[in-house]
Amino acid sequence: MDTSVRPRLETDLKQAMRSGDTVARDAIRYILAAVKNAEIDARGGSKAVDETAALWKLGKQFADAQEQFRAAGRDDLADREAVQLEVLQRYLPEEMGDAELAATADAVVAETAATGPQDMGKVMPVLLARLAGRADGRRVSAAAK
User: Fold this and answer.
1) DSSP H helical segments within 72-97, as ranges?
2) Which residues contact residue 50 at a Cβ distance below 8 angstroms, ignoring those fewer than 6 apart?
3) Does the reported pTM lie above 0.85?
4) Are residues 82 and 102 in the same domain?
5) In angstroms, rounded to a whole number, what is the distance separating the alpha carbons of residues 90 and 31?
6) Helix crossing, 75-89 with 51-71: angle to 10°?
7) 76 and 48 together in one domain
8) Over the stretch 13-53, which tens digit does the pLDDT of each residue have?
9) Cβ count within 10 A of residue 125
10) Is the dihedral of CA 3, 42, 144, 110 positive or negative?
């Protein structure tokens, strides 16, 4: 990510606290904690902080929790997770469209000279690196097939 999303999160957190929006406040706190944890993890090694990956991971956690709460009949908690996911999506970069994703996947398949499903191991690392933060891993995998 070119610029850190952290200052925007901190500003939005203050605004949510002032307005009394507890759901947005809690969601922004979760998001801010995920970004801080990504920064701490990056300190240990020489890797750069990947805020987008941390945000995608948190989004998956919110979506999974929402599914589990719905399956357990806890619609109140599922609705809270849905709202938190909505708040999170404000900070994620816009997802790549299906047509652009398919075109990129076709280009990588051609570059790696992949001939079938057995060559997914060649295609996926290149494709995931190229599309980092712009498409979900499941969508990338489906496009590569």
Assistant:
1) 75-89
2) 1, 38, 42, 132, 133
3) no
4) no
5) 11
6) 160
7) yes
8) 999 999 999 989 999 999 999 988 888 887 766 555 678 88
9) 12
10) positive
